[in-house]
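Each record in this resource describes a single protein on a pair of labelled lines. An example record follows, reproduced without changes.
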Amino acid sequence: MKRTPQFQPPKDADERRRVPPVICYPDDTLPSPDMAMLARARENMTLVDTVIVPPREAETFTVPAGHFFRIVSIAGPQVGDLNLWNAHDFSERFYSGKTRALHGTHLSTGDRLWSSFPALRPMATITADTLDWYGFDEFGGSVHDVIGTRCDPYTHHLLSHENYHHCCHSNLTRAFAAHSGQALADAEPMVHDVLNVFMCTGFTKDTHQYFMKASPVRPGDYLEFFAEIDLLGALSACPGGDCGTIHSSDSAVCFPLKVDIFKPENMAWTSPNLNGYSGRHKD
């Protein structure tokens, strides 16, 4: 709950509030994906791999550059927390904050997932979203957000004084450790803020607090991506289920998620270059 203001507004308070906003990062010069080319590539794809993510667990998967992958609801409404890394250099990972700054709080078809500094390049492009009809609801909620960080055992312990080991942060840590062969303590710093796939979220209109509500996802819905570089992915089936009631516990009904990986026919793909900044940080 926000505190009651302690100071009286100045005489020009209304004038200050009326100053119009300015978009921080205008996107008119942002490199755009070739959606027409990607649509043609989607017409002839072969399923090459499938990974099932159990409820309240996470699994890793690899996607070669130039392939597509789908996160699919298969048994019931379920939210997933997604991490992405460069498959050959784990220091290059998904940068949710910069993706949010460039594309907005919630992602859909045509938006890209950008990587961390110093690479700052597209890792994946969203090519299909069966929930794109949802838009923004009367509460200001929408799906596939890049504002939530991931449920984690530290915040849970801070608020409840309980130890819970199936928060998405812990799930992703175990999955990455198993893939990389690292100890959990070494793997944990590689886990990063997520794309909350299928999660319906926003900010309350009064206190502007982050909220969640029951996801509109249903079996058969999917979010599809095109891999612009070789990717290692990790997906956690959130312990909150559809995130309509609670997370970070075994209380919510949870379901598995599926990751399908597709290879398009006759597609030559060159990954985007690393960011062109000199890296000197001074003249």
In short: The mean pLDDT is 97. The chain is about 15% helix and 30% strand. The helical segments are 13-17, 35-42, 96-103, 153-160, 168-180, 184-187.
